[in-house]
Fold this sequence. Notes:
Order of helices and strands: EEEHHEHEHEEEHHHHEHEH
Distance between the termini: 23 Å
Radius of gyration: 20 Å
Mean pLDDT: 94
Helix content: 40-55%
Oligomer: single chain
Strand order of the largest sheet: 3-2-1-4-5
Structural class: alpha/beta
Strand content: 15-25%
Number of helices: 10
Amino acid sequence: MLILGVESSCDETGIALYDSEAGLLGHALHSQVAMHAEYGGVVPELASRDHIRRVVPLLQAALAQAGRSLAEVDAVAYTRGPGLSGALLVGCAFAEALALALDKPTIPVHHLEGHLLSPLLSADPPVFPFIALLVSGGHTQLMRVTGVGQYELLGETLDDAAGEAFDKSAKLLGLPYPGGALLSQLAERGDPARYSLPRPMLHSGDLNFSFSGLKTAVLTLVREQVEPLGDDFRADAARAFQEAIVEVLVKKSLKALKQTGLKRLVVAGGVGANRQLRAMLDDEAKRKRFRVHYPELAFCTDNGAMIALAGCLRLQAGASTKPAGAFSVQPRWPLIAPGSGAC
Length: 343
């Protein structure tokens, strides 16, 4: 079964081909970071227009890499939400029109489910059940994952997500867009002993998160500086911020493992690429004898491979496809429906 995946939820356009027997055959990705950097953040209208320009060349590149033709595609999976409505509509319309022309069914996929399942693309994939730490964009959640579509929410952020806190704190430190990744790089040469920032909700007794206060602590630190912000201050403040956020993420994850009795942790989403987070989790895994899995670095960001994979796994789990042609997107779409244990 060959699944074509289309991702266009925000500022990356991704196309991929995933085979249920052979695995990932080809994928192509275009990032809009350079385009949006001039404006200091994502401009939705520009994002949508750029997706339109990129989808066909990326499809051609993915097909060439896979050595397959469109005639061999069995179904088309695409990101239905959450995300920017205009960007989602581009991917949705493209996928539905392509499937209609091919007389193939479509599989609408939840963007966060794609991230959640992306470590299954790695050379050392996890097996169910496991705890998932999902740290992607505006989401920070801990979930118990029993199988595809079987998710139990254990805790989530009450305000800013980890990724948002990274980006907002980077802006406070005067770093250009996209700031979160630059902050992480800067933190690697910072002095961990110079500043200490709070660890929000570290001892709350539950598995929820809160990072808006940490962002405010960075703002206070910046305002206390008499001189213009220098490189050493930025590096040391970035290190203090990262130390605080990583400690909270790690200790809450360990608590989730202990609370459920599970011995496997999956980290997914953009913040999952953070080197300090990976190092600390790896140390804890050795010390406390549990397994930790990450997506390949190429699949931490938004990509078509995770959507193609999620679509394939959904079909294998018995989910129904839908006829191509009629479509809609869901810019706001909870992965776990209220009062439910699954999406």
